[in-house]
Amino acid sequence: MKFYLSIFIIFYSVTCGFTYTDPSVTNTNLVKRFEYKLSFKGPTLAFKDGSVPFWSFGGSAIASDEQVRITPSIRSQRGWIWSKNTLSVDHWLLDVKLRVTGRGRVGADGMAIWFTETPGVEGTVFGSNDQWKGLGIFLDSFDNDALQNNPIIAVMVNDGTQSYDHQHDGSSQIQGSCIKDFRNKPFPIRLKIEYINQGLTIYINNGISLDDNAFEFCTHIDRIQLPKNGYLGVTAATGGLADDHDVLEFLTHTFSDRQALAQNQATTDEQAKKYQDEYEKYERELEQQQADFRKDHPEATTSVNEQQVFETEYDREFRVILEGQDQIRLSLTTIDRKMAELLGRIERIASSGSGGSGQASGVAGLGSNIPDDVARVQDINRVINANTDMTRTIQSFGQSLTDLQQKVNSLQMNRNNQQHVVTGQQPVSSNVDSKVFNELRDTIQQIKSETNALLQKIPDQVKCPTVVSTEDSSCLGSYTFFVIIALQLFVLIGYFTFKNRQDHFSRKYL
């Protein structure tokens, strides 16, 4: 039964809804205008510092890019957001998109939309103060009087003397209401609040349809006296039960009478024409006074050449270019002076270092004259040069060893090919083998010569650090290193030669 009742309620809500029509469409005398200083909406609702432009909020309210959460679903919370500017027209429209969600079947306490003479402060009436002067529209979630008439949307106008009756949900104070369940809807609900010709009308989109323009009538109240100037605000509060109260959009539009607007525009144009006439009159009087002064004091007047007094656009651009060129010239002059100082210092150091008998003795004898940092730089340069020469020599060694390996592989292949020749005669050594052995001898001789040259060069430039104990020394001398490399090469070549001869004698006696 409950399932069919729910289906009926949904069907009734959808079929009874109607398409909302803007008052400026039905009444052509009204001109609609959007008030951006009295509105906010996503997706860039808040600044990076968390503030909302033209609005102030506090309490438990939190502003994000998409919405303003007036209260979170935490017990005993109060939040508020109020406009910094006033609404001072006779006809206006509020379009508010909000969402009320909670885990329980029943929520509390509710939220309120305000239009009051002064901004509210945190209080007991849905998060705002009591005895306000202006309009309050309450979305009351909790049934305090146990009459099973909640959630409800109620309207109450206060002149600043009445106190809201919480125990009875203000049933004897409200001027209009409609029972609408606005909690836990699939989509946000929307309220259209019109105030035109002292008549207040509220429409609601119940949030069960994707059609944003499908509204239902809620209530209408005539002859409502509201303040001429007022502030807009939204507040919310939670009690023993708690809901999330979110405001996604708050859009404010004002309506002006077309005839009154035309009259105001005509008045504005008339005032502008009046000001223009006064300015032209003042300008004529000033020119007349200047002419009279020049006539009475001819010796005190001098002709003014505007081309000499005022700078043309071409002259200004040319002056800017010249100033930039002058700054560049000053920078180059400064750099040249610093370079001259640096060269002078280098020449002084060079002249002081050339007074010795040799480079090494000069460095040792003039240690007190040459700065320590210069001496260290020279030592580092010598080490770097020696390492560079060593690297090049090792690279040449690598290339020579590669060539040697290729030649040995070629010799081995030739020997293997001779094994497949089956004849009764003794195989004759070819000229290719002698040629390959000669190339091997030349390569080994080249490696020995380069090794000797490197050994003669390295001791003069790079020395192994002096070690106190020979047993603890981990430095391998260059001479020992290259002797080991040469021994390995000789052993390798001897091994291949011995193996080739063994193969030769074995085939000789086959």
TrEMBL record:
GO biological-process terms attached to the record:
endoplasmic reticulum to Golgi vesicle-mediated transport
- Enumerate the subcellular locations listed in this protein's record, separating them with semicolons: Endoplasmic reticulum-Golgi intermediate compartment membrane
Which ranges does the record mark as transmembrane? 476-498
Coiled coil: present as a keyword of the record? yes
- Coiled coil spans: 265-292, 401-457
Signal peptide, first to last residue: 1-17
What would be one Gene Ontology cellular-component term for the protein? Golgi membrane
Q: Name one Pfam family in it.
A: Lectin_leg-like
Which InterPro entries does the entry mention?
A: ConA-like_dom_sf (IPR013320), Intracellular_Lectin-GPT (IPR051136), Lectin_leg (IPR005052)
Q: What Gene Ontology molecular function terms does this protein carry?
A: D-mannose binding
Record carries keyword Nucleotide-binding:
no
Predominant location: endoplasmic reticulum
Q: Which PANTHER family match?
A: LECTIN, MANNOSE BINDING 1 LIKE, VESICULAR MANNOSE-BINDING LECTIN
Tell me what this protein is called: L-type lectin-like domain-containing protein
Which organism is this entry from?
A: Rotaria magnacalcarata
